[in-house]
Amino acid sequence: MNSSLKSLKNWFGYTRRERRATFILLAIILIFTGARYIIPQQSIVTEEIPEVFNQTDIAVPDMEIPRGTLLTGNQRVRVSRQPGKTIVDINKCDSADLERLPGIGPVLSARIIKYRNLLGGFAVKEQLKEVYGLPEETFILIAPMVSADSADVRRIIINKADFKELIRLPYLERYEVNGILKYRELQGTVSNIKELVDNKIIPGDKAGKINFYFDFSK
Description:
The chain is mainly α. The chain has three domains: 2-38; 58-152, Orthogonal Bundle (DNA polymerase, domain 1), CATH 1.10.150; 156-215. It has helices at residues 2-12, 16-38, 95-99, 106-119, 136-142, 163-167, 174-187, 193-198, 204-211, and strands spanning 58-60, 77-79, 88-89, 146-147, 156-157, 214-215. Strands 1-2 form a two-stranded parallel sheet. A two-stranded parallel sheet has the order 3-4. The longest helix is centred in the first third of the chain and has 23 residues, at 16-38. The termini are far apart.
């Protein structure tokens, strides 16, 4: 029997210290393996997860926010269940209202208001694309969130306006203003935008936009 143990010991070649270390290692492995079955694992209850969007600053119509959109600061988005609802009237809002829109910061909001004042108001929201530095992607993102009413536009009484008043409209070139004044001098009054297009004073591709800003009262 002793010869068998001696042979086994010689076969493995372990010293007393090595055997002790091996037993300790095996004991540690057994303890950790048994602990997985003895100690119950903690489960997460979905009701305990805090609701992140319980307070909102922006109501957004039913839409999918594009992947990669960044909302800065404390800005949060609530998906509204009222199709067609808008949150910003771009003819009546201030810079703070505009800055709540995704992608619109202080610089762009200031440019939008400056351009609005220059135009005399936005007739359609698509005119936002004319604002310097406003990317097409940003317009697509905010388009469902804004509105514009052509009734809010400040109109120019074309049959009474002078050169200074007409040239302020960004859509008119100097030669077009001179053409309007000359035509009015010869004909007395202008009846409608078609009259200016037919006489090649206003290009047809600009007539639609310009017509929002003209009042043909006599």
